[in-house]
Amino acid sequence: MSRYLINQYQSLEAYVPGEQPQDMRYVKLNTNENPYPPSPAVIEAASREAGRLQLYSDPVCATLRDAIAGLYGVKRENVYVSNGSDDILNFAFMAFAGRGGKAYFPDISYGFYRVFGDLHGCDYRTVPLEDDFSIDPAKYHGLDGLIVIANPNAPTGMALSVDEIEGIVRTNPDHVVVIDEAYVDFGAESCVGLTAKYDNLLVVQTFSKSRSMAGARLGFAFANAGLIADLDRIKYSTNPYNVNLMTCAAGAAAIADNAYYMANCRRIEATRTDTAERLRALGFTVLPSKANFLFAKSDRVDGDTLYRELKKRGVLVRHFNTPRIRDYNRITIGTEGEMGILVSKIREILG
Ligand code: PMP
User: Fold this and answer.
1) Is pLDDT above 90 for 19?
2) What is the pTM of this model?
3) CA 271, CA 109: separation in Å to the nearest integer?
4) Which mutation among 151, 203, 206 tests ligand 1's pocket best, with the greatest number of atoms within 8 A of CB?
5) Does the Cβ of 220 fall within 6 Å of ligand 1?
6) For ligand 1, is residue 219 a contact (CB within 6 Å)?
């Protein structure tokens, strides 16, 4: 830290992203990336746009927003796009909680929520998950601030139903409810449809997981036009070109190729079912996941040891050294082949 950093940020604990090691090739099951490549049309669109990089991108992102709106049956004014969904979540904490504003999210969830809360000086409270790691929706009824829930939740993978979410949105009419659907395409129910009915619901999604574009940085969100205009106000006050030229075109091409991506999601779900069975057969407790990862603990090896022993053997998973979950590891679903390697390395470690 330099002596110039202002007080406000001196105690800020930054988010620690999962490792992206450059030293060797790992079986990389630690950051919930999609194991399948972008579709050929997406690669073609990004390459084509690379030849026009001297120009700024369209700040309105009209083509991309229209493509998303068409697929999801909403209007352009109901769609927001940004530089990864982290960007949107950041703006949501800034716009709908802010300094001293109240915010609520689960105690075990996406680690960035705390960081955004701290960054913007929000007065946030965490709401404990139940003993089985589920979210009790009743704990979010009638609160007095911004509510942020990942559905499916991370790192548990467990999901709420649309009815349960609707109960939360309905009982908090004076506050924004953000539903972070980063993993929704892997088998959970989306509540995008509820945005037509409630003006306090912001549904956030991403191209990083189900659409194999983590490196392109593209997040999107659905809400009534008022909330989208609020996000736009912040975007135009920070970085109007927050989605670059290549990513804009790649995103629109990915939407046009939706069937390719949804087929990959179904394949990942099948691999998830198979991997969960194999881990349970080895004595693991595996939470019921609707995401592209499993959250699992062994009855024979502690979470940190398993993480380290797997890394030594060239397999990266994500371990969180925090209360209640340090026995677990979060394991991204890769290809069938990659999961075969994971299971065989685990067998070796268990002896
Ligand atoms: N929400 C959740 C729950 C996540 O796990 C992630 C991925 N780290 C994100 C949002 C952010 O994804 P991105 O910024 O790549 O869209």
Assistant:
1) no
2) 0.97
3) 24
4) 206
5) no
6) yes
Q: Does residue 13 lie within any of the structural domains?
A: no
Both 124 and 136 in one domain: the answer is: yes
Averaged over 191-219, what is the pLDDT?
98
- The answer to whether the CB of 69 is under 6 A from ligand 1 is no
Is 204's pLDDT higher than 90? yes
Residue 12 within any structural domain of the chain: no
Domain region containing 321? 19-37+259-350
Which of the 8 DSSP states describes residue 212?
S
Supply the CATH number for residue 124's domain. 3.40.640.10
Residues 23 and 76 in one domain: no
pLDDT in tens, 99-110: 999 999 999 999
Same domain assignment for residues 201 and 272: no
149 with 272, same domain: the answer is no
**Please, is 92 exposed, middle or buried when counting C-beta atoms within 10 Å of its C-beta (0-12, 13-18, 19+)?**
buried
**152 found inside a domain:** yes
**Residue in 82, 86, 87 to alter for ligand 1 test, most ligand atoms within 8 A of Cβ:** 86
What is the reported pLDDT for 22?
85
Strand order in the sheet with 328-332: 285-286, 293-297, 328-332
* Residue 35 CB contacts under 8 Å (≥ 6 apart), including other chains: 268, 333, 334, 335, 338
Q: Ligand 1 centroid vs 110 CA: distance in angstroms? A: 8
Q: Which among 215, 232, 256 is the end of a domain?
A: 256
| Domain end residue (candidates: 226, 256, 286) | 256
138 part of a folded domain: yes
The enclosing domain of 309 has a CATH number of: 3.90.1150.10
Distances (CA, A) of 256 to 25, 64, 70: 32, 10, 10
What's the pLDDT at 24?
73
Provide the pLDDT for residue 18: 87
Count of domains forming the chain: 2
Query: Does residue 82 have its Cβ closer than 6 Å to ligand 1?
Result: no
Is the distance from the beta carbon of residue 115 to the nearest atom of ligand 1 less than 6 Å? no
Atom of ligand 1 nearest to the CA of 183: 3
DSSP 68-99: HHHHHT--GGGEEEESSHHHHHHHHHHHHT-T
